[in-house]
Model the fold of this input.
Amino acid sequence: MSRNALSVLVLVGVLSACTTQQERRIANGDFRYLDEQQRVNVRIPENLSSPAFTKDYAIPALGEQAPRQLIGDKLEVRSPALVLPLVTGSHVEEGKRSATVFFDQVDDSTPLDTAIWNSLISFLDEQGIGVDTFDKQQGLLLTDWMVATEEEGSWYSWTKTERELGRRFEFKLNLKPHGRTASLDVSLRDYMETRGDKVISSADLDSEAVRRNEVEVLNSVIGHYQQQLQLADAKRMRLIREGMEMEMGFNANGDPAFIVSGDYDLTWTRLQLVLRKLGFNVKDLDKSNGLLFVKYEGPQSSWWSRLWGNDDSLPLDQEEYRLQVNRQGGVTAVTFMDEESKPLAADLMTQLYNPFSQTMADDDLDI
Done:
């Protein structure tokens, strides 16, 4: 390939990549087809038989409600806007035209509707968008104007067009009676766009443009929600890896128990790591009732350690046990029980205290 031909190809590639936002919305090429006239049917001379015609490729007639003005450069050819359910436990309904996402409860630490509203308001605050009205009881939030200004134009063009866009959205949260599933709907309430001397209002938008605006802001809200969850998970993992202080005490029933200086959710996860470290196998669990069903199998120490008397075994038979975990004020009580849910004796709990306390206090425990 010659150097001149290569230069032409590079120049064409650069020019095609520098199209404006408006140009990317419409089809490439010209629109000379708009000047074409409807052709008449084939005329058959009277002395000849008419051939058989088929309607397999006939273009159907436009319906009464068809938008006849959407032709040429007024017709956008962009892909349909899709809601992206990125949050764990979120999903969409196939075929649903509205900008709607469904959330399922996956974290019981905060009511589902509160978590969604907190994330939405946090997103609006981060973007510098005000709230016009908010009624949590009715599940409605109306935003203030979202205003954005940008310049459109190509690098090879001497002219620039300023584009200003203002939008207001209404968010509707519908919580199921059981409180573990909710849907978040977005509706475009007001729209005003100026591009040079041209003004576009809500009345000028077709249904696809309205949906595109609604899905755009909904996906931004979902992305913010997912980012918040990831940050919260990272913080939670960091706290779980940090050591927790523990002391001997009694549960609310007066039975001997380990009292952990940590909230219930962190202690629940941390305790499973401690149990695994000390040679327990967690067979089943029920977080809502604070129950752990375990079997003591002993530490996985090497024969060399056992040869020199380094036995880290606990004073327990290798059988099944139960642990009851309860919130107790600002701390968490852990009660050891046998297979029949009878609390272990105080002297046995005292023997178990040191290995549990030391492991619970270790930093960077393997997850």
